[in-house]
Amino acid sequence: RVDPENRAAAMLIYGSRLVVVPLLKSSKSSTEPCHQSYVVDLKSLDERVNNVKDFQFLHGYCEPTIVLLYEPLRTWPGRVAVRKDTCSIVAIALNIRDKVHPSIWSQNNLPFDSLYVLPVPKPTAGVLVFAVNSLLYLNQAIPPFGMLLNSLAEYTTDFPVQKSTGIMLTLDDSQAVMMEDERVFVSLKSGDIYLITLISDGMRSIKRFNWYKAASSVLTSCICMATGNYIFLGSRFGNSILLHYQEKSSVTADILEPIEQTTKRQKVTGEEDLDLEIFGNRKSKPDIRLSVYEFEVCDSLINFSPITQMTVGEAPYLSEEYKSDNHLDLEIVACSGYGKNGALSIFQNSIRPLVNSTFDLPTVYNMWTIYSNNNPFHSFLILAKSDSTLILHTGEDIAEVEESDFITDETTVHVSNIQGFILQVCARSLLLLKDVTLVDKAELPETVQGVSVSDPYGAVLFKSGLVYFLTVENNKINLTDTSASGVVCLTTYMDNSGIFTTEPRANFSDSATTGNTESEMTGNGKTEEDIDEDMLLYGDTNEIFEHFKKQAANEKLKEPGPPMITQLHRPTHWCILSREDGAMEIRSLPSWELLYFCRNFALSPKVPYYNRL
Q1: Residue 432: what are its φ and ψ, rounded to 5°?
Q2: Alpha helices of 348-387 — where are they, by DSSP H?
């Protein structure tokens, strides 16, 4: 687990020991290392801490604070009549500098079937306790709130909880994660997805849980929130999916019960005005916005487990081109998945394309497909032989081009499109063509070993190890000597994601905390200092609560996140090359500036790859 403010991380080992890893430096100097990690024996803090079920970092504390869910004395459903409500939680502050860990608050006599905890962000803060038959909200110095989820919970716990209406479910094997605006995304063991809205009374106390069934998905084993309204659902019983959610509609609901309409004594107008001035308007009921979301599957990771049964057989409807007496092409048919994620899976040892026609090309050792005349489909198929080149025109039929300015009496090293033209590279010459018409030709001083083109730039590698930079300007081929030598191979690359860059990530947290930010202002233009103690004690709680909600939302926007690859970025061009001494270089194009250098790259461990013998 990691602290919400990235101050520390923790890991539970051996069931009763906590490994604390500080993430903050011991001083403001960048050269000072972080504090050393250490191990905390939980029994030394509280001898009752045993059988820890879950732990999480809490929000809204000056120091990293951990809440532990544990069961000091175990029980089971058969002994509920004798022993129940055996779980407890305790909040422990981690003073990393002094290694002192005081207990801040605790709560005993929780349902014995409590499963895990989920921290609630500011301004509400606190923690949600998920049990099999109930859902609880706990916080320091605030009365707890709980809700029964089925009729069995009435007999399994004496914890003060409310009975739910219209809900009949269990939370065993469920997965939950916090969304924005105090909403919880819950995936049940049946695959049903629920959204829980935490409805507050205006300050920090939770008064109701609103359950809404949003969708039905895979049987979830883990869940994770991602930036940009994305949720990843990992599954061991089916395909893991990436969901994108967006608000579809919203409704407004009252969150406070109406107070009594009649009193023992009718107050005069002056007394009512005095009560309003001191205590505020208690009859005004703040509203809560209940959102309805729609979910869209963006991507999925295929999963074939668990496999219950399988068999091997020969592939049906196999093309004649794949049939061979020496190699028997087999398939594995398996029953995989579980429940509604069950499927019949077919495993093949290779991809089998739909073959329209075949013909033998015994002397062809390389081929390229080329665009021409802004045609969205390929116009030419170039076949390189050992001593000649064959030019084919693609369309409804594949036919050889009889008359063209292509070089056909010698082999071709490389063919590609560059700036709307066709570039043909032979051993000692370069041709620039428009369709089949020659535009420009350049003679080369040496024999070409390889060419790589990433439109609009390219690189030519000679057998001597020299590298020339290639561009097209004013319909002319432009070759520039890069002074690079001893190069054995190279490739060019165009990056559109924005990740392949040398620019450092901006420190959003530093820039966001400078100046008079919006988070320091309330809705009516007041600063936080203007909200005095009288307003906190007697004023309109709706204004204060909305202020803290807006402050928490602005703090969330300040948090630096990973770069979004979905944004549009200016394409950048790069050249990766390897030298005779085993070094690897990455250079930017068109400046040919060296940006990365790695010695003995050829001695690095090999990446596993598939090679069918």
Answers
A1: -115, 120
A2: none
Torsion from C-alpha of 227, 233, 234, 240, nearest 10 degrees: -100
Query: What pLDDT does 324 receive?
Result: 62
Helix, coil or strand: residue 136? strand
Strands 476-481 and 487-495: unpaired
Pick from 512, 485, 497, 465: nearest CA to 564:
497
Q: What are residue 266's phi and psi, to 5 degrees? A: -70, 125
Q: Which amino acid is at 223?
A: I
In 3-state terms the chain splits into helix, strand, coil percentages (rounded to 5) of 10, 45, 45
Distance between first and last Cα of the chain: 45
d(CA 235, CA 215): 16
Task: Collect the ranges in the chain with pLDDT lower than 50.
Answer: 254-269, 282-285, 507-534, 536-541, 544, 557-566, 610, 612-613
Residue 33 is predicted with a pLDDT of 62
Helix and strand counts by DSSP (H, E) for the chain: 6, 38
Instruction: Tell me the whole-structure pTM to 2 decimals.
Output: 0.61
Predicted local confidence at residue 325, as pLDDT: 57
Tell me the pLDDT tens digit for each residue of 489-530.
999 999 888 878 777 655 434 433 344 433 344 444 444 444
Q: Are strands 572-579 and 584-589 parallel, antiparallel or unpaired?
A: antiparallel
Q: Is 279 helix (H, G, I), strand (E, B) or coil?
A: helix
Evaluate the omega torsion of the peptide bond into residue 590 and state whether it is cis, within 30 degrees of 0.
Answer: yes
